[in-house]
Design goal:
Radius of gyration: 21 Å
CATH class of one domain: Alpha Beta
Number of helices: 3
Strand content: 15-25%
CATH topology of one domain: Histidine-containing Protein, Chain: A
Largest sheet: 3 strands, mixed
CATH architecture of one domain: 2-Layer Sandwich
Helix content: 40-55%
């Protein structure tokens, strides 16, 4: 009975170590490709499935993040449903998601005179 428990514990520990290794490799790949990706993307791995979350600026960056994660050996599947892309309206001024609010008002295109 004890031998079975030890094997089960050993297998679980091996899976956790392998998942941690995959997470580290994915984060490293993101940071090497573009330091901002490594900072803004959260990576979790469970049984070889890599879950990506956070924000990127473009759909191309989203595809890049998924491709980089997929290129890491040991990755079985990618879950990128929590990986979001900033959406900006034309004419608006992009603001980072965690920017402090300010009372400063920037003139919009409607405020300018047609001279």
């Amino acid at each position: 009975m004890k031998l079975h428990s030890f094997r089960n514990y050993s297998h679980d520990l091996e899976t956790v170590v392998h998942d941690t290794w995959i997470t580290t490799k994915v984060k490293s790949a993101l940071t090497r490709a573009e330091p901002a990706l490594g900072m803004n993307i959260h990576v979790k791995t469970h049984a070889g499935t890599v879950s990506l979350s956070g924000r990127v600026n473009t759909h191309r960056q989203c595809e890049q993040v998924v491709a980089l994660a997929r290129s890491v050996p040991g990755v079985v599947e990618i879950d990128a449903r929590d990986l979001l892309t900033h959406v900006f309206t034309p004419g608006s001024h992009p603001v980072p998601p965690n920017a402090e609010e300010t009372t400063e008002r920037r003139p919009s295109s409607e405020d300018q005179d047609d001279h």
